[in-house]
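Need the bound structure for adenosine-5'-diphosphate, inputs here:
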Amino acid sequence: MNRPELILTPIEMKQADAATIAAGTPGIDLMTRAGRAVADKAAEMTARGGRIVVAAGPGNNGGDGFVAARLLEQQGYRVSLGLVGQRERLTGDSALAAEGWRGEIVAAENLPFQQADLIIDALFGTGLTRGLEGAARIAVERMNMSGRPILSVDLPSGIDGDTGEPLGVAVKAAATITFAARKPCHLLMPGRTFCGPVTVADIGITPETLAATGARIWANSPPLWLHALPRPGTASHKYDRGHTLVASGGATRTGAARLAARAALRIGSGLVTVASPPEALGVNAAHLTAVMLRGCDGPEGLYAILKDMRFNSLVMGPALGVNANTRAMVAVAVNARRSLVLDADALTSFEGIAEELRQVLRHAPTVLTPHGGEFGRLFSGHPDILDPPSKIERARRAALYTGAVVVLKGPDTVIAAPDGRAAVNENGTPYLATAGSGDTLCGIIGGLMAQGVDAFEAASAGAWIHAEAGASFGPGLIAEDLADLLPNVLRGLLT
Ligand SMILES: NC(=O)C1=CN([C@@H]2O[C@H](COP(=O)(O)OP(=O)(O)OC[C@H]3O[C@@H](n4cnc5c(N)ncnc54)[C@H](OP(=O)(O)O)[C@@H]3O)[C@@H](O)[C@H]2O)[C@@H](O)CC1
Ligand SMILES: Nc1ncnc2c1ncn2[C@@H]1O[C@H](COP(=O)(O)OP(=O)(O)O)[C@@H](O)[C@H]1O
Ligand SMILES: [K+]
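Answer from helper R.:
Posting the output first, comments after.
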């Protein structure tokens, strides 16, 4: 099995860079390998003899650009190079790299971008500290206006490597080539949309060196959790595969729970039961087949059901109602110490009183699955959680605060554990933005936890599988489709 793909923050990348240099590889060698990788990628994108325009910045990102310019010229491309800043002010490895460039150096904003077959954006990489102004800003605006394809070095200039946010104007790349490992901005929105396809070049920084930085963000993909996916044994019976309980809303709000329940069953929970308010039993009964049904009158009803210890996983929230009754049911569920997924109304019922949720959550392995709106409501009054510009950091802080695994949903769903692990999802499709899609996700996660999967693995696997199912269907997807797309995704993973 492949290794999980580690994502490095700009600071961690600098550490790995420094460790590699300390272990004996000169910095200029790293820069030369990086520049060669850029030149190879540029050559792949441009016919031999074509015109390549390189915009270089004042730091090491610019140094990579100088190396690439020299190599491409040697290969017979017509290369123009422009610099932001003064040639004499270059220092260290980028000054060395610039010495290798014998051609003219013009001001970057005056480069003939419109005549380029390819533009190489080597203005700023992981060292960007503020929004672009002056010559750098004009250069980026002209690049973008030219309509010519842009290859960004490391990351599109103007994008913050940690957060994926543009700090003002930013390059819209046709492709990006990065080094040793992807950075958060390559996966997070909106950065991902500025990058185009991202290639990772090996420049001789070992996986061990990357890991030694203590990096704890991964791209969410099967190598991260495949080992934890349940496979029934030959002699398994259904109770070995867990029993998921899904709480239903009132008579006119029952569909969400059934979506979650069907997903839990499809993902392999041996049994699934919908716990329904008495007045909704009829409508639920009319729509359930393999999923079972129990009457459940509020917190007392839930308490009674949970005396049966075989219910080992609970899913609560979708269409349950935003009120004290829901809060009381959450408390009962948590005190029963079963695996728990809280979504939608179970989160919004704690709007502005996240502290209360935190108090009850101490008892059980819990996954919270808010979308951005639910997250904002739940943690209103907690600027320490809501304000960090990085979505990964927001999810991590929420996980640390609540002690739960937090799945902060969206096109770049982040799964964060209280111990700092984080995974970023990128395999979805905008067709997943459809009513009930999130209900299905929490059913999948609950169904995995029913089978004994740990909260972080269940949440990560669940988010990936859910996204993969949606992407496999594409246009026309409705939430009802999702559960029935799961077997195909599971088949691809398990056989
Ligand atoms: N790590 C690795 O393994 C390897 C890394 N490599 C490469 O190094 C890159 C990182 O290099 P880096 O640290 O020199 O930063 P970089 O992005 O060039 O920018 C820093 C310069 O820009 C300036 N500056 C910042 N913001 C600005 C603004 N808004 N407007 C104007 N100026 C601004 C800042 O100046 P200051 O903030 O001090 O004013 C400084 O001068 C990395 O992305 C990769 O391409 C490879 O060579 C191989 C190995
Ligand atoms: N543009 C998108 N690209 C990929 N996935 C998306 C996108 N928009 C939403 N999703 C996913 O769809 C699901 C929507 O969940 P949610 O907002 O809770 O919907 P609902 O409340 O209707 O069930 C989440 O898993 C989210 O990650
Ligand atoms: K760049």
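Comments: Residues 258 and 287 are 8 Å apart (CA to CA). The pocket of NPW (ligand 1) is lined by residues 13-14, 17, 30-31, 34, 57-64, 124-132, 136, 153-154, 179-180, 203 (CB under 6 Å).
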